[in-house]
Amino acid sequence: MQDTRRYEFDGLTIDIPIHFDERSKIYIEDYPDFIENPIWTGSGYRVLFSGCDACEVAVDKQSGKCLDCAACKFFTHAAEHTWFGYCTNKNSPINLNPQKEAN
Predict the structure, then answer these.
(1) CA–CA distance, 101 with 76 (Å, rounded to integer)
(2) Distance (Å, rounded) from C-alpha 78 to C-alpha 48?
(3) pTM score of the predicted model
């Protein structure tokens, strides 16, 4: 059985695989490809890796233009010290949930 870390946020429970890195001597999370295999929160927001390229409607927390999701004011980290979270921008094309549209 693979070791995992469990996160619960916005109506979603997700287990992220972890492995011990011999070089750094710490456990490292092995995030899935959230673009190829989309995951949605209970509120219908898209889960993303914080380093994903920002979309065209992203708004930087300070200056306006974002390079990645983590810099966007609409990005919420799943938990403190994680590299993933979810986008709360209802105008973002990333939040178009085909499963939600079908219902």
Answers:
(1) 23
(2) 10
(3) 0.85
